[in-house]
Amino acid sequence: MNYIFDDIEKNIIEELKNSRPQRIWTEYIKVIFEFEDHFVELECVPEIADSQNQADEAMTVKIRKVNTIYEPYKNAHIICENENITEINVVRTFLYFTDSITEPKKVKKMDSIWNRIISKIAGIRKSKIENILEGTSRSYHRQIICNPNSEDAKKASPEFSNLINVGILVKTKEKYLPIFVQSNGYGFPHLETKPFISSNELAKIIGKYELS
Question: Among residues 20, 145, 23, which one has the least CA distance to residue 78?
Answer without folding.
Answer: 23
